[in-house]
Amino acid sequence: MQALVIAAHGSHLNPGSSEPTFAHAETIRAAGAFDEVREAFWKEEPSFREVLRTLESEEVYVVPLFVSEGYFTERVIPRELRLAEWDVSAWDSDGTDADHATLRATDVDKTVHYCGPVGTHDAMGDVIVERARSITEGRDLTDFGLAVVGHGTERNENSAKAIHYHADRLRRSGLFAEVRAVFMDEEPEVDDVATLFETDDVVVVPLFVADGFHTREDIPVDMGLTDDYRTGYDVPTAVDGVRIWYAGAVGTEPLVADVVLERAADAGADVADAIVAVRERTRSGSDASAEAATGRSR
């Protein structure tokens, strides 16, 4: 038997924080690739610490639903799962290319394949493209600038690395007229997004797992879409003569379920059929060209 655990942060303050996790888990569960699929959280139940005890399977694939490699993926999750042999060097990563490590959780006698976070997988480039398409009404993306938004923080340099990584790959793909990485707490700032592009239209995709305070409140106000997030805003909204198409958190895109499966597949899970089923369920008809342009295929 094989099981999948999707590990996410969760929130005591934002009840919608866990919704994407449950949605992606349900999509994967319906595909039938795993005997068991569980959600686990730091701030909600079921917890990281107890989730392995709820599984009958002896082989478990753990995929962190986080944007970047950092404190939670490198320290908190392995500690709470009691992966005694874990060392971050097992990922052999420079901050954006964590793969997986196979370890024993001896207290529950299970083999755990601990995977890198979804946010740094190459497949997230496809998700960003799909998120942009979902908001731009079928228009040609080569007419658009793309802003990939991250939080940015001095406490975790890998947070910015993940944003730059996807922005660089999408820039090379040629799918958009311009692509830039922008941040809430670093330069270039999302406040200035309307002045950073030469295009008349800019689609803004935040690389966040869930829609919360930052994506629903801070970013729209910072970009000048509205003075009060509670009154809402139009899509697109003209700011300084530029039409801003704001897509919301990338983690809410149904295609993220595919990235979770890709992570598990990279670690050896037998999920090829499930990946096909999930792609058919979550992708639009134009995704094949996006995958080819971003350099991915399976």
From TrEMBL:
Under the GO molecular function aspect, what terms does this record hold? metal ion binding; sirohydrochlorin cobaltochelatase activity
Question: What is the official name of this protein in its record?
Answer: Sirohydrochlorin cobaltochelatase
Task: Name the GO terms of the biological process aspect.
Answer: cobalamin biosynthetic process
EC number(s) per entry: 4.99.1.3
What the entry lists under SUPFAM superfamilies is as follows: Chelatase (SSF53800)
List, alphabetically, the InterPro entries matched.
Answer: CbiX-like, Sirohydro_Cobaltochel/CbiX
Enzyme class name: lyase
Q: Which PANTHER family match?
A: SIROHYDROCHLORIN FERROCHELATASE, CHLOROPLASTIC (PTHR33542:SF3)
Q: Which UniProt keywords apply?
A: Cobalamin biosynthesis, Cobalt, Lyase, Metal-binding
Keyword Chaperone annotated:
no
Nucleotide-binding recorded as keyword: no
